[in-house]
TrEMBL record:
Alphabetical list of Gene3D superfamilies matching this protein: LCP protein (3.40.630.190)
Highest taxon, organism lineage: Bacteria
Domain Cell envelope-related transcriptional attenuator span(s) in chain numbering: 128-282
High-level lineage: Bacteria, Bacillati, Bacillota, Clostridia, Eubacteriales
Full protein name: Cell envelope-related transcriptional attenuator
Record has Transmembrane as a keyword: yes
Keywords: Membrane, Transmembrane, Transmembrane helix
Length: 389
């Protein structure tokens, strides 16, 4: 059975979804979705209004937006990755922080998905994180929220001391990065998605490229990164200006770091790429989605099954007046820039005000709640070691 038939069965054939899904789908929501789907005629995709195209486009964008990670070989549509976000192995310090924050009441209907873009080179098993984001699906407030984490943020990595936060993934994969985010910022993650350079390029190509306005100062940097990843197969830019970038060019655009305001502007470029992807997917015909989903789903590593993603897409489908909100942490008001010795090497870091940053991100994810009593690690000793620029 080909993929398009499988997708139609999953979306419109309630019994197939009920029988095969191994994800933790709320039974009451599943029942409502099955009843709703039975009212639709089988065998074809219904015409979606422009606003309702968000049903499929959002969960595709949740994948596209991850901006870069590891290839996953699934033997079938519903096989889960062996990776896990959390285990019972935590340090005493982590347990103390968790216990101190047990009193905080958060909305359980809100789901946080860790999006990891990975710079994985030939011969490497894990690679380095090139982007770290958290996609929050908030059905109560009809919103999708994207939190970008500066990769040079200097924090304590459980069991491994202080380092830039992007080192957590290289040391211990998804699990250690998730523990690091939880320990320092009290962010609880429900799922993860990763995508690497080559698969990110393929995904961009599968949607026909994206339109980006390239500055004159960015052209040479884009071409440098294109050649670094693709070698003799490179397709280089020749001019600046508004143009459609293919996968190689879009990836390289999102990686630029030494033009403009370093990592801060890099995050802004990644947001532009995400927005361009969202616009492209939203304007696709509904009949194009199954083929695109087949391409995208085969290019990621995740603990989410296809059924998980479709269920989340259905949650977003029910949202009215959907809003997409963005936050970068640490924000400008909550950082100190400087240098720190990591081993014997001197490196530029972003030193965060953990208390202010944690309150800010929790208020962003869970609006209308009081997080002024949240407990965070004490990084004052490390702060005294910072060499100010």
């Amino acid at each position: 059975m080909n993929f398009v038939v499988n997708i139609n069965l999953i979306i419109y054939g309630g019994e197939v979804l009920k029988k095969n899904s191994i994800s933790n789908i709320n039974n009451s929501e599943e029942s409502m979705n099955i009843k709703r789907s039975k009212k639709r005629k089988r065998g074809f995709l219904p015409k979606l209004s422009k606003s309702k195209k968000i049903l499929l486009s959002v969960f595709l964008i949740i994948i596209l937006v991850g901006s870069l990670s590891t290839y996953l070989l699934f033997s079938n549509l519903f096989k889960k990755s062996n990776s896990v976000i959390y285990t019972n192995k935590i340090t005493t310090e982590e347990k103390d922080i968790n216990d101190s924050n047990e009193h905080l009441d958060v909305e359980t209907k809100i789901k946080n998905i860790l999006l990891i873009g990975v710079d994985k080179r030939s011969g490497e098993n894990i690679g380095r994180t090139d982007s770290i984001m958290i996609a929050t699906v908030d059905p109560e407030n009809n919103s999708i929220k994207l939190t970008s984490v500066l990769r040079d943020t200097y924090v304590e990595i459980p069991e491994h001391g202080y380092n830039k936060i992007n080192a957590a993934f290289a040391i211990g994969g998804v699990e250690l990065l998730s523990r690091t985010l939880k320990y320092n910022f009290n962010i609880t993650l429900d799922n993860y998605i990763t995508i690497d350079f080559f698969n990110f390029q393929n995904v961009i190509d599968s949607i026909g490229g994206i339109e980006i306005d390239v500055k004159d100062t960015e052209v040479n940097e884009i071409n440098k990164y294109i050649k670094e990843v693709n070698g003799t197969n490179s397709t280089l830019l020749t001019t600046p200006g508004l143009q459609v970038l293919n996968g190689q060019q879009a990836l390289s655009y999102s990686r630029i770091r030494y033009v403009g305001n370093s990592d801060f502007e890099r995050v802004e470029r990644q947001k532009r790429v995400m927005s361009a992807c969202l616009d492209k997917v939203k304007n696709m015909e509904a009949l194009e989605y199954p083929k695109l989903l087949s391409s995208v789903y085969g290019s990621i590593d995740s603990d989410m099954t296809l059924a998980n993603i479709i269920t989340m897409g259905n949650t977003v489908y029910q949202m009215e007046n959907l809003q997409v909100q963005n936050l970068r942490i640490p924000s400008d008001n909550n950082i100190t820039l400087g240098d720190m010795y990591i081993g014997s090497d001197k490196a530029s870091v972003v030193f965060p005000d953990l208390q202010a940053t944690t309150e800010e991100v929790l208020n962003f994810i869970y609006p209308g709640q009081d997080f002024s009593t949240v407990t965070v690690p004490d990084n004052s000793i490390q702060r005294s070691k910072l060499i100010l620029n």
